[in-house]
Please model this.
Amino acid sequence: MKFNIAVIPGDGVGPEVVEQAKKALDAVAEAYNHIFIYKEAQLGANAIDATGGPLPKETIEICKSADAILFGAVGDPKYDNDPSAKIRPEQGLLNLRRELDLYCNVRPVKAYDNLISNSPLKREVIKNSDFVIYRELTGGIYFGEKTLSEDKQTAHDVSSYTVKEISRVTHLAFQAAQKRKKKLTLVDKANVLETSRLWRKTVSEIAKEYKDVELEYLFVDNAAMKMILNPTHFDVILTENLFGDMISDVASSLCGSIGLLASSSIGAENGLFEPIHGSYSQAKGKDIANPLASILSAAMLLQYLGLHEEADAIERAVDKSLALGITTQDIKRKMQKSTTTSKVGDFVAD
Ligand code: GGG
Model:
């Protein structure tokens, strides 16, 4: 079969890790007789340098006409250190999600058995951890009005949610729970936030349509603690944009490295696949960044295209690289030598 894939390498280590994901896709194309046609596009700091803005129109067009989008990372420390910067690279990614209405971000988390010793947590606590975070991606405080008063003494970020925005991601999360261990945890801060109370009300109404799924509510602070102390408690976690961003970094501590967590961002018409990590600019060009989250994102892209066997092949190759210790320095075990980004990519492709 033939597929058009938009490729957005982005900033920092994005291009290096995306290159490894493409190697895996090319290996799949050869082994299973598919054709992947890549079209590259700019987004983020690189796009600002080239065009003056973080999301060129051409990038939106390329993404809209593609069957799926493979993305790397966005961000550049030169903007982080300049609070007065009016244009920011991250705005490119947020605007793309909004433009394509990619409202549902799916982040699977599992503790790989042979990496458990890398985690700062105890083996018996994290063994068998396997859950998935459903993060609402196009609403909440990330997209609300932002203001800074003229005297620069007061700032506002408005968080707002509609029932419609909450409902559509909630249905997808319940449907995922039905195919898993039939448990859904809504993570919110309903003791403080009005938006969280609307989430609870909406989700509890929708739960009536999914009677086979157990629903529980947890405050985000409690959920973060539970994730560290008792991660096997979770099956499907549903949460809003900001909390989802935060708790998935907490979750990465279970895996041993944030360099292992992949994600998909799904809308009605499009799907974008990216590692959850950012641009890690200190490592740019050094061939040391972990490419596995990007490679596993490519596997999620194949699932989205309906190529399940092909996606499994990539996942098995990743498992093998971990089992054999062919890994970058972030997940190197004691007495073991690490290898480079590109060598991990070559191994998985082989
Ligand atoms: N690959 C994910 C990435 O580049 N993250 C950087 C970032 O700032 N993302 C904002 C977000 O995911 O909401």
Remarks:
- Residues 1-119+256-350 form a domain with the Isopropylmalate Dehydrogenase fold (CATH 3.40.718.10).
- The mean pLDDT is 94.
